[in-house]
Amino acid sequence: MKISRRALLALLAGLAGRAAATGQEGDRLVFRGDVLETPVFPLESCPYFDRGLRFSPRPGVAFTHRARGYLATWEVDDDALWLIELDGVRFRPGSGYESPTLEELFPGRLEAGRLRAAWFTGILFSPGTRWGGPGAMPHEAELTCLLEKATVLLHVENGCVTRADDFRGLPAAPASPSFFRC
Predict the structure, then answer these.
(1) Are strands 160-166 and 152-157 parallel, antiparallel or unpaired?
(2) What phi-psi label fits residue 66: left (phi over 0), alpha (psi between -120 and 50 degrees) or beta?
(3) Model pTM?
(4) For residues 39 and 175, which has the higher predicted lDDT (pLDDT)?
């Protein structure tokens, strides 16, 4: 029996079922002198971040591990969360690819060259790999699994760090039973 290439591709596509997502490269977080990676993307909930121009890690390239196209670097300073750097390029019709500065992206909103994340309320934590989904925070089931393994947790309310838990260097906590498969 001979099968056509089209039929074989259709059969293989049907067998795939749920496809595995690509782990998303986390934003950077500068905390107590260390550079950590966080699977929380505060910029995704920023009301004055222009998403009209799509970002890319490099000109003409789409990386599946950085679907949002940029890599933000955040810093905790004086109990506040600050955006201090944005790595990525965007395409402007007529201009081509450019690496915009924070001042170009947020005109008139910077303080000493950085942007206070006054719009963000949530938990920043590290380490962790996010497997997809839009928005600043991972979805609830994924968040439950990620928080169990976190060694740094920062509770943020309107850009102010209200609580910082740093468990680095301490023995790992015993695994707790979960209804979710982590």
Answers:
(1) antiparallel
(2) beta
(3) 0.73
(4) 39
Flag whether pLDDT at 165 surpasses 80.
yes
Cα separation of 86 and 60, whole Å? Answer: 18
The span from the CA of 68 to the CA of 42, in Å, is 12
**Rounded CA gap, 31 and 161, in Å?**
11
Element (H, E) at 122: strand 122-126
Tokens of 141: 């089931």
Q: How far apart are CA 19 and CA 10, in angstroms?
A: 15
Q: Which helix (H) or strand (E) holds 9?
A: helix 5-16
Average pLDDT, the chain: 77
CA quadruple 86, 124, 156, 80: dihedral sign: negative
Q: Examine the pLDDT at 30 and tell me if it is beyond 90.
A: yes
Name 23's Cβ contacts closer than 8 Å, sequence gap at least 6.
Answer: 65, 129, 130, 131
pLDDT at 50: 77
Residues 6+ apart with CB under 8 A from 150: 125, 126, 127, 128, 167
CA–chain centroid gap for 93, Å, is 27
